[in-house]
Amino acid sequence: MMLQNEEFKSYENGKSLLNNRFKFIKHLQSGSFGKVSLAYDVVNSIQVSVKVIPKNFHSLQEIQYLERLKSNESICQIKDYFKIGTTNKDSYYVLILDYYSNGDLYDLVHTRKLSRDEIKKLSNQLICGLKYAHSLGIYHRDLKPENILIDYEGNFKIGDWGLATSIRFNNEFNIGSEKYMSPELKIINDKSCGTIIDCKYSDYWSIGVTILTAILGSCPFKEYYTIEQSFENLTNFKNKDIFTDLLKYGNDEEIKNRDLDLFLQRINDVEDGFDEIDDEKIDEINEKIDTKEKIDEKIDETKEKIEEIEETDEIESDDHLFFSMDEQESFNAGDYNTEKVDFDIDLPALVKNSYQSAKSWCDYDDDFDFELEISKLNLNKLNTNNDNDKKHNDKKHNDNEIRVMETEIFDIIDV
Description:
The chain is α+β, with helices and mostly antiparallel strands. Helices cover 38% and strands 14% of the residues.
């Protein structure tokens, strides 16, 4: 966000105090809706967060919401606000907020795994703050780890109320961050999943996914996944049933069955860790790993065998030729659609292949003149000496070995 205000630029450059009170320390965050910096309050001798946002209706609404939410400790606290600038072009609102030195939940879950007690603390504090906001008719609409701030004592606070609304039932879709957005909020292929959004239950979904992300270390609901695919990612998650009470989707009745109180109760009842996998799932995973290793071993053996065959047994080009009976000319089978080959006479099978002739050698009468029939085909290059017979037999033997290896691999897969 580029600011056109000279007073704020002077503050950022360390040349002056903002509002004769706040000394710039460093930048914290910047986005399309505003900028946040760390400052020192020279009056109260404390560090504070300074958030500057455009002067418009939504910004004024955010300030009003924060003023109403000041009495709840699970919500980011506003200390003061004022306006800078004299024209529409350089006018901004400046919000003075508590500074939370431990960053946000997003950074925390990407740094280390949260303990069981931390997950319970997170769940209780977020739900406390959310229920308080809902009791005042304020709906957040952008709950996600990046908007959960952490103070120096490890307490969690709901911040960034810039997308909040006091209209519980509305038709504004695609509001919030997609991975944490409830299914009914999304517009897919220019069509919405519903007609009216109940922001209360939409917030329930988002807070559930936020807590689930804190447990797993990453969000299982990806932008490119369907809801069904995302839930498949939770197959091995031991405590997935806890979230089924909150992450309900479908028609209006299903959405209204999202139960925040039951969810919190089940979270508080957990005695073990939240990220453990069922013992049965561990056995299944280990079995799949063993099977894959066996398959990989057989594939490597087969590749080695094929390489040996290629090195010791060069296949002559004549072995890959079919012969046209009409034109008496040869062509390579790789350049021809063999399914369309139409022989005018029943040709005895010379080698074993997928296109057997109607008769084999033993089907003909004893007085059948083979030499005469072969001469008709002009097969001048046909070599029937013992060396080629030996090569052909060796190749057939090696082919059989490869087929045995393939059979063993598929036997493992079937297991």
